[in-house]
Amino acid sequence: MNLPEDAESRAIVRQSDLGSYGYCPAKAHYERSARDAGYQPKRLSATILGSVKHYALQVFQQLYHEGREDAQAVALATFEHYWSPEHCGEICEGFPTEWMRGHTYEGCRQEGLASLTAAFAWIGKERSSWLLGVEHTFNVPFDIGTEGVLLHGTVDRLTLRKMPQGLFVCLEDWKSGKVAQNLSLSLQWTVYAVASLSMDFWLSFYAGNTNGFDNLLTDLAGRGQALHQGADGLGPLEVLPRRGRLLSVRDGAFGAHDCGIRTEAHYERLRFHIREYLKARRADVNPPTTDCSKCLYCEYSDICGQAPVPELQDTDQNNWRA
Predict the structure, then answer these.
(1) Is residue 207 part of a domain?
(2) pLDDT tens, 35-87?
(3) What φ, ψ does residue 70 adopt, rounded to 5°?
(4) Whole-number CA gyration radius for the chain
(5) 193: phi > 0 → left, psi -120 to 50 → alpha, else beta; which?
(6) Which domain range does residue 222 map to?
(7) Residue 8 lies inside a defined structural domain of this protein
(8) Chain mean position to CA 16
(9) Distance between CA atoms of 227 and 125, rounded to whole angstroms?
């Protein structure tokens, strides 16, 4: 199967594709094939609810950054407007076509309003971080040892975060689903972190030519620190360490989860992962996940192998709400 390439014939490795392949290679394969054929997969209520929440968070952050006193009211109204069959398709794939266990339209609406309100309150009180940007998309060259690739992705929130251990460049991502364990090992934040070490990641900030960004660079240089590698003309500087944070908006509440510091060991693991990912994609090898629970709501389960997917039982007590 062909991989997307840039003008220099480098494979474009999307963070989202790495995540999909890590979740289930077979599903990622079937989904790509279906989309190429013009078929639109089912839209799960949890996924669409997350997309609408995400958009409302974008609206709030932009208005709050501008100093608008009505930022929360506008953002909540935005959520209610797009959490509807008439308008949902304007910002994402469309209204849900399949509702997960325990989900209803009204229940999801109330949960969304409650969790967003909690998130907005946290943003208003957060004093340890300085917001640099939101929805920051990057395309950064990355050497994996056997070849060069282009890393592509979007960071939900990019901040400077002051902690007892020092100052960090913090890569943050909003999540509306279940919080995974071992976030310090998560590949998603490793991709963000290694990309942010490159000057290419920050090109749009330089192009913006704002005094605020220039002042930040000057202030950091005065402390012997730099935002990224290759800060020429400023003398020997220590590049700020990278740290991830997962911002959870679910179950009517909000939670900030530290994803830990990223080190060279994480980046070497990422190189290994990408090398193996490229081999598998080029050979069109797409094994199914061994975790049957991930197959419960997958629309491709009936064409994936020969083994049926058992239904949930009452003993599972799987009453997760998005």
Answers:
(1) yes
(2) 888 887 889 999 999 999 999 999 999 999 899 999 999 999 999 999 999 99
(3) -95, 20
(4) 21
(5) alpha
(6) 129-262
(7) no
(8) 8
(9) 25
Q: Report the Cα–Cα distance between both ends of the chain, in Å, rounded.
A: 34
CB 57, CB 76: distance < 8 Å: no
Asked if residue 227 is part of any domain, the answer here is yes
Looking at this protein, which amino acid is placed at residue 108? C
Q: For residues 191 and 188, what is the distance between their CA atoms, to the nearest angstrom?
A: 5
- Mean pLDDT, to the nearest integer, of 252-280? 96
Q: For Cα atoms 204, 205, 211, give the angle at the middle one, nearest 5 degrees.
A: 145
Distance CA 53, CA 79 (A): 6
Name the one residue in this structure whose structure tokens are 């990422």: 270
Distance CA 196, CA 156 (A): 13
Q: How many structural domains compose the chain?
A: 1
Cα distances (angstroms) measured from residue 313 to each of 101, 167, 306, 316:
12, 48, 22, 6
Contact yes or no for 87/76 (Cβ under 8 A): no
Query: Is residue 40 situated within a structural domain?
Result: no
Amino acid at 197: L
pTM to 2 decimals? 0.90
What residue has token string 């070849």?
A: 147
